[in-house]
Specification:
heterodimer, A: 157 residues, alpha/beta, Glutaredoxin, two-stranded antiparallel sheet, B: 178 residues, alpha+beta, 5-stranded mixed β-sheet, 5 strands, 48% helix, globular
Chain lengths: 157, 178
């Protein structure tokens, strides 16, 4: 994975069938990148359903959550509508896994993203990352700790 | 091992012997089918372990997938104000497919609540805040799905179906009472 303290590589991917989202458009916000293996699979389902409840806790830290997998924009649309997600899912579909590779979290064997989290600050610098065993939902505590720490550091400067 | 960050306290709903050697905390969502499946399993555990067990239920409603989960949780908190938390908790899990407001009132009537008071109490923001506080405490303790169990403060990562959870608890009991 990419080390903390380094700039998060920019990318642009489909967030809906007719919209693209560029990471650098989210400067001035913290960004939580959640790479996950596959739409509809049980652990990813639990993980994204949990994160979907966290909008207001993330907003308190001026943070935006983004999910990324190699599923297509149409698959994401169905997954998102079914689960009523309030955050974007990006399709790292073509070339497959390009962004995941850029972030060092592509699993060549399965052709899917690993289950990995990055927290990026307002200036686009990686501040925290976590690689979870693929079968384990990492929950949200690690993200909340990272966001709190970032806000504390800022308020003491 | 993930720990329960908010220890069991006087704001919790506690069933059974408060000084029991085993403490089982369940983070649950009233509309979640897995929690519904866990409900009779926990009932059985409570019966089997008797005075050796203290059981605590905390709210972890996933409100986007389960739109009735928060109002059901608030209804149990309102019932608690009339001393009938567990009666409401039980009747909701036994009827978790019908959780519209009118059903909640029907349950309130069935368990013998003062309906006027119930109607006022469910609109009290303090009850919703309590449900949210449970949720946030769960997040910070690493709850990542429902149900999630903690046994004597440690997250239980194993299988809770069938008699697995009971057997695990019995093992812990042997250890702590040795």
């Amino acid at each position: 994975m990419l080390p903390t303290g380094t700039p998060a590589p920019d990318f642009e991917l489909h967030s809906t069938p007719d919209q693209l989202l560029k990471l650098s458009e989210l400067r001035n916000k913290k960004v939580i990148l959640a790479f996950y293996p596959a739409d509809w699979s049980p652990v990813c389902d639990d993980q994204m359903t949990l994160y979907n409840e966290m909008g207001k806790y993330f907003a308190k830290h001026n943070a935006q959550l983004i999910g990324i997998s190699v599923d297509s924009k149409w698959c994401h649309l169905a997954f998102s509508e079914d689960h009523k997600f309030h955050f974007p899912l990006l399709a790292d579909f073509e070339p497959k896994g390009e962004v995941a590779k850029l972030y060092g979290v592509f699993n060549e064997k399965t052709g899917e993203c690993q289950r990995a989290l990055y927290v990026i600050d307002e200036e686009g610098i990686i501040r925290w990352s976590y690689l979870s065993p693929v079968g384990i939902n990492p929950g949200a505590d690690g993200i909340l700790n990272a966001l709190e720490e970032l806000d504390n550091v800022k308020s003491t400067n | 091992m993930t720990q329960l960050r908010t220890p069991v306290n006087s704001n919790d709903h506690i069933f059974g012997n408060e000084n029991a050697p085993l403490e089982l905390v369940k983070y649950g969502d009233y509309e979640c089918p897995y929690c519904g499946r866990a409900y009779p399993i926990v009932k059985d555990i409570i019966q089997q372990l008797g005075d050796n067990l203290k059981f605590v239920f905390r709210n972890f409603p996933l409100s986007n997938v389960h739109p009735h989960a928060v109002s059901a949780a608030v209804a149990t908190e309102a019932a608690a104000l009339q001393g009938k938390f567990w009666e409401m908790h039980d009747i909701i899990f036994e009827n978790q497919k019908t959780l519209e407001v009118e059903h909640l009132f029907l349950f309130a009537h069935k368990i013998g609540l003062d309906l006027e008071r119930f109607k006022n109490d469910i609109q009290d923001q303090a009850l919703t805040d309590k449900v949210e506080k449970d949720f946030y405490g769960g997040l910070r303790s690493g709850v990542n799905k429902t149900p999630t169990f903690f046994i004597n403060g440690e997250k239980y990562e194993g299988d809770w179906s069938g008699t697995h959870l009971l057997e695990y608890l019995q093992n812990v009991l042997t250890k702590v009472s040795a």
